[in-house]
Amino acid sequence: MSKRQVRIGMIGYRFMGKAHSHAYRDLPFYFDLDVEPVMQAIAGRDPEAVRQAAGKMGWKSYETDWRRLLERDDIDLIDIGTPNDTHAEMAIAAAEAGKHIICEKPLAMNAEQAGRMLEAANRAGIVHMICHNYRFVPAIRYAKHLIDSGRLGTIYHMRATYLQDWIMDPKFPLVWRLRKEVCGSGTHGDLMAHSIDLARYLVGELTEVTGMMDTFVKCRPIGEMSGGLNAQVVDDRYGEVDVDDAVAFLGRFANGALGVFEASRFGKGNRNGNRFEINGSKGSVRWDMENMNNLQLYLDDDEKGMQGFRTINCTEEAHPYAGVYWPAGHIIGYEHTFINIMHELMRGIAGNFSPEPNFADGYRNQLVLDAVERSALTKQWVTIPT
Ligand SMILES: NC(=O)c1ccc[n+]([C@@H]2O[C@H](COP(=O)([O-])OP(=O)(O)OC[C@H]3O[C@@H](n4cnc5c(N)ncnc54)[C@H](O)[C@@H]3O)[C@@H](O)[C@H]2O)c1
Questions:
Q1: pTM for this structure?
Q2: Strand 4-11 relative to strand 35-43, pairing
């Protein structure tokens, strides 16, 4: 019997569009799904570029206005991979059109917008997710299992850093990621949003924060993104950078743990240094995206004299998702995090539920982002609304 189809309409087809397209293509190859994802249409504004992208990435059709995807009755799911200022308008309209949604992070420009997106999704009864793909790294899933099963004991600390260095050249152009009216915040909403998501996933809700933010290069030539994290200067005029280059904050978790967080695009030598360490009463874990298959684990009940951090290569059947790919030791990569999250999305659509992380997580994440920004401005501790 043929499976129910999930016909996808994707908006934005560059960095995340490429990652999502690849995931939809590979998904049925690895997972036995209850539904059949169909790459129905993409939307972009440049007719020739969107036509080429559709052909290259394997989409059946294309539109030059994203609203057309919502009018089409052969689209079931809207995938939003455009800059942050567009998410709320697109997601609310998609929900009102009765389409399921996966939206890139951060969910919105601020918590007020994110709250409206959550309300619209709930009102429409559609399935929704936010693309915090790092939750779907097998090593992180396994860390979650160790924490939830009590192997690390009471959690006291989470220390997370997310460091990149791609904008350190002062001539690197003023792209959308550095303009507040388009991105909402800089490194904060881009990188820190991921660390906050991992903190909420692994340790729990944050209750209060105190933070600081700064911008090291305040003026840049006008430019645009050209794929991945590359960009080109398109104008010899300069414009003001009005978002943070770097951010740090301290936070308290509801369960009593303490959090220390830092994100920067000025961490020279760190290309995608997404890392954390969690310490509990009985053990600790450490993880680093640039070595993503490995989890460092310390357990206090190891024999005295043999104690120490061990490296677990999370590619065994026992590690979430790892078993669907290759034999143990045959590592996976960045793109597999997107295949895994799209698998959860398809499960959600098949079962009519919104898998985590969904818009409720995106909203709670945004409350923390907003609170850190407010704290940086006021130099006060800020309580996160419950
Ligand atoms: N999950 C992750 O790890 C991750 C990584 C990178 C980016 N992101 C998020 O994904 C989103 C997109 O980032 P990106 O890196 O793919 O950006 P990008 O600049 O590479 O691509 C953006 C795409 O959106 C299109 N676009 C812009 N405005 C549009 C509009 N009004 N209508 C239709 N298309 C429009 C552009 O033409 C382009 O195709 C952002 O929200 C970003 O924060 C998430």
A1: 0.98
A2: parallel
| Boundary of a domain, candidates 133, 157, 180 | 133
- Among 102, 133, 164, residue at a domain's last position: 133
Smallest CA-to-CA distance from 23 within 2, 5, 8, 34 is with 8
Which residues have C-beta within 8 Å of that of residue 199, sequence separation ≥ 6? 158, 160, 206, 251, 253, 259, 261, 276
pLDDT of residue 7: 98
Quick: pLDDT tens for 153-179.
Answer: 999 999 999 999 999 999 999 999 999
Q: Work out how many domains the chain is built from and give that number.
A: 2
- Nearest Cα residue to atom 21 of ligand 1: 14
DSSP 216: S
At 205, phi and psi to the nearest 5? -75, 145
How many angstroms separate the CA atoms of 341 and 8, rounded?
A: 15
Q: Please, are residues 177 and 190 in contact by the beta-carbon 8 Å criterion?
A: yes
- The range of the structural domain enclosing residue 90 comes to 4-133
| pLDDT for 1 beyond 80 | no
Q: What's residue 227's pLDDT?
A: 83
Name the one residue in this structure whose structure tokens are 């729990």.
204
The residue behind tokens 């929704």 is 128
Structure token pair of residue 366 = 């945004």
- Answer whether 68 contacts ligand 1 (Cβ < 6 A): no
Could you give the CA distance from residue 215 to residue 32 in angstroms, rounded to a whole number? 47
**Which tokens sit at 7?**
């016909």
Retrieve residue 40's tokens: 């129905």
Give the span between the Cα atoms of 133 and 123, in whole angstroms. Answer: 26
CB-ligand 1 contact for 83 (6 Å cutoff): yes
Give dist(CA 318, CA 57) in Å, integer. 33
Atom of ligand 1 nearest to the CA of 194: 3
Is residue 350 in some structural domain? yes
Nearest atom in ligand 1 to the alpha carbon of residue 338 is: 1
Contacts of residue 121, Cβ cutoff 8 Å, sequence gap at least 6: 91, 95, 101, 128, 354, 358, 359
Given ligand 1 and candidates 89, 104, 191, which is best to mutate, with the most ligand atoms within 8 Å of its CB?
104
Which phi-psi region, left, alpha or beta, contains residue 380 (left: φ > 0; alpha: ψ -120 to 50)? Answer: beta
**pLDDT, tens only, 107-137:** 999 999 999 999 999 999 999 999 999 999 9
